[in-house]
Amino acid sequence: MRPLAILGLALLGLSAGGVAWERFTGDPAKSSEPPSFTTPELRTMASTVIATGIVRLRVGAEVRVGSQVSGIVQKLNVTVGSHIKRGDVIAEIDSRGLAARLAQAQAQVGVSEQDLRRAEVELKRTRQLAEAQLVPPQQAEDLALAADAARARLEKARRDAAVVQTDLSYVFIRAPIAGTVASVSTQEGETVAASFAAPTFVTIIGDHALQLIAMVDETDIGSVAPGNPVAFTVETYPARELTGRVERIAPKATIVSGVVNYEVMIDISTPTDILKPDMTANISIRTAERQALVVPDAAIQREGEERFAYVEEKGALVKRHLTTGAREGGVTEIKKGLTSQDRVLLAPLPNPPRRAEP
What pTM was estimated for this model as a whole? Predict the structure, then answer.
């Protein structure tokens, strides 16, 4: 082999070895791919209280709708799961019996009106005769009392007709609130009796009837106040973040296995179509905001429980031990170990640097 060829191969081998050594030692000053650095920055961070909770129905959100009158269920317009608006007709009771009673009451009103007119005519005639002293005054007084009695009977007949008219309006059972039908307790063709208690036709869960109950430990409850914003997820949809706001805090503690917790009622802001009662939730209550020094998560290295970062000092990388805080939006709070003037390595080194901060 020619001497020049041997020399070329030797130089090529030395070059490859040098590159390999540079990458092995991880010296960023000599690496062909210079590392990227970041500078810690001040950012507004939230102080949060972490708790678990459960989705529940609000008090009064579940309404049982019954019948005011007895009769046969002629028509049922809903099934379980139906969404209804306030005032929609849920069911209809056979109205023929009530219609007949109403006609009878109205006929009685007509009879009473005729009796009153007859009594008033007789009273008027008798008063004229009494003024002419053709009949005793006592007879006119008796007819006046009879006219008053006829007037009272007419009023009673009208009230009786109004009661039947009201009962007739109850044959249409309407939804008192907007919501979803949770259960149906009767069917078409069944006879309902409303003598002692209104029989339940359907149970309706109102719209926006769900609330979140968080169990907050006694050590954290002092920082929670009505109006605090809330973010939470449920076990069924762990990737979907929902929001709410603290509505009120229970004045009395709930003690379970010796642990003192307080119920925090949270009004859910986002649509609750995907939520159902008794779902378990992971809750974060934002109690305050503060200015904090943060770096991207990629700048923080880990070895067991230790957290550290590599900082450039005089052309070399120095290992800095860190005390970290909250994480939010891809950044981590630095409580101790860095300043806003430090240049921090973003990517981990292939090997530790040659010197480290003692």
Answer: 0.52
